[in-house]
Amino acid sequence: TGDEFEELSYAFNRMLRHLVTVQEELRTVNTDLDTKVDELAQVNLRLYEMNKLKDEFLATMSHELRTPLNSILGFSDLLANSKDLTEKQKRYVSNIQMSGKNLLAQINDVLDLAKIESGKMELQLSEIAVADLIERRVGNMLPLADKKNIELTSEIDPRIPILFQDSIKIQQILNNLLSNAIKFTPEGGRVHVAAKLCEDDPDHMDLIVEDTGIGIPLDEQEHIFEKFRQGKTSSESRDTLTRSYEGTGLGLSIIRELSKLLDGEVFLESEFGRGSTFTARLPVRMSLSHDGVLSELDDTSVGMNRIKTSDLQRYSQKKLGENDHSETRTP
Could you count the other beta carbons within 10 Å of the beta carbon of residue 252? Predict the structure, then answer.
């Protein structure tokens, strides 16, 4: 009938208008999406340029700061060995050496963290006797401990086999842990270093540094591994970063990142006012073919013992995919 036809025509026109409206909205959304894509492309380009500038800056910083600083340290070492200096002059030279080494360590911290974050830090794997490594590190730290009358002891689990790891990175972890422990332990305190094979996982070992220092408040412990963080004394406000202790506040952040780089992790146990225990849990990698690391990574043409971070991450992801499930370990 005429009424039915009119209703049908009205419904059809209404649907048509709705489709036109939807099409217009879709065109608007597409236009906005194209704009956002263009903006994102511009942002990515700027980020790429900024990252390139950062790399250039770090390279310049490495050369322009470390090169003259190494010269200063070299000449100060020559002066220190001179027999013609008075006691006062020897103290001056000693101050130059100490200040130069502290500055060089801080520069190295910044550069190392930047390399790790950009994925450009490389691993150099070799066989390592952990007892010799710890003995050298403890020996190097003894003068710092003696200055504060701190008892520095060590303990090595005889079951730990020869490691297949990056000796330099492990030394960096141990150096940072020890220097932090000595720095935050008052005079007459105690710092103990231990290397133990994990009881529940013999493929991993724990590097443990325990101190009787100032400790870390519970509410600070979750943030202590963040960049530029330092511990606070009991008299300091917890709302502001403290500069009571020397350093950049990068030591623990570097420890965490290096541990991850070595396919490990780091744990903290601490009681404010009584001391802290830091544990770096690292894989042993007992032989050259341990878990197929060397043979599989060699196929990527990265060289015999030089493995880029990106290659190691790719291998780790592959191994994770092969597991039916993952477990969360606690020390």
Answer: 22
